[in-house]
Amino acid sequence: MRLVDHALAQPGSGSEAWLLLLAGDADPDVRLFAVTFMATSNNAALVEKAWQLAIRDHDPRVADLAARLRERTDGPFRR
Predict the structure, then answer these.
(1) What is the rounded CA–CA span in Å between residue 20 and residue 41?
(2) Is the separation of the CB atoms in 50 and 38 below 8 Å?
(3) Closest of 23, 29, 27, 30 to residue 55, by C-alpha
């Protein structure tokens, strides 16, 4: 995960694609890392995707992010 964290910090690394790939990983720790990273983004579309992934995740730590994201901002979640 430290390697991915370093790679994501590099400009032009395709970080969105990496994060989406990692958010679907079998390891819940990897998913938690990816979705948390996405949720802290300034990119509203990426935050929305983090929320969508979190509400469907079976790991309670990842699923808990959905509630915290919803509390943090209503903007990208209002339909």
Answers:
(1) 13
(2) yes
(3) 23
pTM of the model: 0.74
Closest to 38 (Cα-Cα) out of 56, 57, 51, 55: 51
What is the secondary structure of 15-42 as a DSSP string?
HHHHHHHHHT-SSHHHHHHHHHHHHT-S
Structure tokens at 44: 């509203």
pLDDT at residue number 10: 66
Pseudo-torsion of CA 36, 34, 31, 29, nearest 10°? -80
Residue 50 clears pLDDT 60, i.e. is over it: yes
